[in-house]
Amino acid sequence: MSSRSHVDSRLMEHYLVPKHRLLSLEEGVKVLKSLSIKPWQLPRISINDPIVRILNGKPGDIIEIERDSPTAGKYKVYRVVVSY
Amino acid sequence: MSSRSMEKYVIDKIHFRLISPLEIRKMAKITVVRPEIYEADGSPVSGGLRDPHFGAIEPGERCPVCGNTREECPGHFGKIDLSRPVILPHLGEKINLLLQSTCRNCGRILLPEDRIAYLTAIYKKLKEKWPLLAQNFSEEIAKQSSSITECPHCGAKQYKIKFIKPFTFYEVRPEGEIRLTPSEIRERLEALRDEDIFLLGMDPKSARPEWSVLTVLPVPPLAVRPSITMENGLRAEDDLTHALVEIVRQNERLKNFLSSNAPESMVEEAWQTLQNVVAAYIDNELPNIYQLSHRGRKQLKTLAQRLKGKEGRLRGNLSGKRVNFSARTVISPDPYISINEVGVPIDIAKILTVSMVVTSYNIDEAREYILNGPYKWPGAMFVYKRRQNMKIDLRYHRNYRQLAESLEIGDIVERHLIDGDIVLFNRQPSLHRMSIMAHKVKVMPGKTFRLNLLDCPPYNADFDGDEMNLHVPRLEEARAEAESLMLVENQILSPRYGGPIIGGRQDYISGSYLLTVKTSLFRKEEVSYILAAANYSGKLPEPAIIKPEPLWTGKQLISLFLPKGFKFEGRAKINAGELRCDDLNCFYDSYIVVSDGKLLMGVFDKNAIGAEQPGNILHYIVLEFGSKKAREFLDNVFRMFIRMLEVKGFSISLAEIEIPQEAKDKVAEMVHKAKEDVQKIIDDFRQGRLELVPGRTAEESLELKIIQRLQKLRDETGRLAIGYMDVFNNAFIMARTGARGSDVNITQMAVMLGQQIVRGKRISRGFRKHTLSQFKSGDLSPEARGFVIGNFRDGLKPYELFFHASGGREGLVDTAVKTSQSGYMQRRLINALQDLYVSYDGTVRDSADNVIQFRFGEDGVDPTLTYHGKSVDIDRIISKVKVTSK
Which residue of B has its CA nearest to A36? Predict the structure, then answer.
């Protein structure tokens, strides 16, 4: 299962792909603290997600996604990487 | 219950399993062997289905098993020892799977030993991590194993099993199909090993497969199947008892055959009957069984029928319950009560009660209620004496005076509903939160609930026989919460779209238009009469016209009620077509300007006071002056609109939709022209010269072009006819102010109905190549394909009426289908979303506190307080500044 096929990193530049960022441990803890939740209460993202592969996310990592929002302009979502 | 101390537990999980025969035997206190229920003297038959060992049910009776009386005895199970085993009908599928995939001789899975071990190891791991995948895995094993024809363990030859629902099994042997009896099946299931059962996806600890073939049947206690005694002394037994009687009868019959060595065929027949009856006892709606019924008519409601469906235990008794302290009756309108009120019939007010704790402040009031008794309003139904811990029912109490005198502080009086009590009012279907609102009671004579007309839009109510429900909150806390959150005035703005959902409709809009229109001038008496409707008690303003007599405009009257400092600028609904103007320079009075609470120009119509119109005057009154001010405006001013209609009178007649001969001639000319155009299009099509619409065939292009041309015809003739109407035409006023109807409706009444459409096409069905027998085959002309030139005023030709009815029928069917489909969709949506909530940190969470949205709506804005969903209403801010600077 560990032999993952290569994903073209230009995918990140596609106009339909929102901005993804892998949070550092400190940043991740800060996000969880600010919401006072445990990681498993976050929305999930698969480790097999192409963007997660490019970012080389590991289970438990938190990814920040910044999307355009019709109501708020910019909207940040945090997702925890899961192994399935 | 309440007096006993109770331990509290939280249910963690529920585990369903099969019950083993051993357990059934252990819990059974009585074996039923006799199908009779009562002896000749009326006492229950011992060993029958009403044996006292089933538990005490009569008052004063002592249970022979536990020694308790009716109140304390929990009831006890009995059993029926089945003479031959029978299959549980719903488990046929599982039994089939087991029989198919295991050896008929040794009971092992039909795979080699090492393979079984290997698969078991994988299965265990799978089950831990991916239970659903494990399920598929064991299904796959069963499939593989069932195709093998020779057992790898004992070498026995395997046969295919044929399963006929719900409980018949055959083995397909070379010599023919042999029926497997339940006994044989049970033997085979008994031979299965626990490990093999586990691998096939079942849990042998909680459900050994042989338990799915019953050898002993549990009989539920009498409390589960109570009998009803009628006035004439006859007893009617519960359906379950009837079904059980049938089982006992068939069981005893089979037992007799067995003991008397009856021929095999008779035994077989009795056995199958027993199997059928047991299956029907469990589920009387199984396919391919003989259903049990009352003397050949009504079907018995057996175990499955008790649970299933809308009126079953789950949907009817657990998800939805009947409640006390509620009332339901027809609603009727009353424009003279507040929108916060509901008129409650006095007969209902005398039955519904509110509990009132007696204090030193209200003791005199409470005594008054007691003296009035339960039948005189405002009275009381019950008194709870706190010190004596006693509940006194005033219906069975004679001395009210003595009771009132003995009333003490701390007692509780259940008094009648009185004016001002908070109740919840509801109309089904409850599709949004405004479907249940809190109202203040106003007790009235009559037998209907009275509802202010302005409350109709949120409930979607009308008065053609609608009924509504009323609930009385029981606790002070509940009443306070209902009042501050659910009171009608706090629900004027809808969260569905930012705008008021409460507001005028129909006559209110006509009335407000007539009141504010430029030509309306009122003499002093009229002004007084109109203002009296709004409970106005201040001074009259300066008259707008002094000579020859003092006259007031309607705009002046409205201005008396608009809040000071209120500014508004915007288009009225009539601001369209010929009456269009974009700013203050408006000749037609269709541009509304309110400055400092004075209506300076423009008329009030749907865009000013209408329901479900975001950005109207009502909307800004609520947002800027609060819902209390808005409610007062709705309560008072709207009555004035109705009074206006009463003063002036408002109706329509045939004359209003009559158009002059000149217009008729013009219409005829236009129709003639359009017909020619259509004929030209048809000719073009026939000669292949028709210009095609991109992506369409020639036929489709033809239809499109014809429909387009005919649509143009109706629009043009409609516009022409409406142009001939004067501005005081009531039908015209209603259409243009948005009170009722549209230009299309007027066109249909005065000029022509236009094209009738079925299935999105011109009407083309009926005979081959023509719609009705009077048209020639292949006639594509407007009239032959459902274009109706007639109008409602002059009447329709027979074929026109037919086309109109065809189109109308489709509309009817569509609405019926649409409501049921969208209703179901809404139900599923709400089931999925019901536990989501916006938490205090602004995130949206589910019941496990998982984050669903990091900020509600991504911007954290409450749509109720927005302007049509936009959180900042720039136009409003600009217009406020603009009016101020002038």
Answer: B841
Q: Would you call B843 and A35 a contact, using CB atoms and an 8 Å cutoff?
A: yes
C-alpha of B524 from chain center: 51
B841: nearest CB among A35, A42, A78: A35
- The predicted-structure confidence for B474-506, as pLDDT tens digits, reads as follows 999 999 999 999 999 999 998 888 889 998 888
Same domain (yes/no): B431, B330: yes
- The pLDDT of residue B2 is 47
Query: Distance between CA B859 and CA B836 in Å, rounded?
Result: 17
Under 8 Å between Cβ of B551 and B540: no
Whether A43 and B852 lie within 8 Å, measured CB to CB? yes
The domain made up of A16-82 has a fold known as Eukaryotic RPB6 RNA polymerase subunit (3.90.940)
Q: Which of B764, B796, B828 is the last residue of a domain?
A: B796
Which residue type does B378 have? P
CATH number at residue B688: 1.10.132.30
Q: Does A71 sit within 8 Å of B871, measured CB to CB?
A: yes
pLDDT at B1: 46
Chain B nearest C-alpha distance from A61 (Å): 16
In a shared domain, residues B120 and B167: yes
Q: Which amino acid is at B644?
A: M
Residues B633, B658, single domain; the answer is: no
Predicted ipTM of the assembly: 0.90
In angstroms, the Cα distances linking B496 to B433, B493, B677, B868 are: 10, 9, 47, 9
Tell me the DSSP string of B606-630: HHHHBTT-TTSHHHHHHHHHHHHHH
Strands B341-345 and B436-444: parallel
B851:A76 CB<8 A: no
Burial of B709: CB neighbours in 10 Å, binned 0-12, 13-18, 19+? middle
Please give the Cα distance from B42 to B177 (Å, whole number): 51
Which residue range forms the structural domain that includes residue B176?
A: 88-213
Q: At which of B597, B622, B648 does a domain end?
A: B648
Please tell me whether residues B254 and B391 are part of one structural domain: no
Q: What is the mean pLDDT of chain B?
A: 90
- Residue spans per domain, chain A: 16-82
Burial class (CB within 10 angstroms; exposed 0-12, middle 13-18, buried 19+) of B562: buried
Same domain, B487 and B429: yes
- Number of folded domains that form chain B: 5
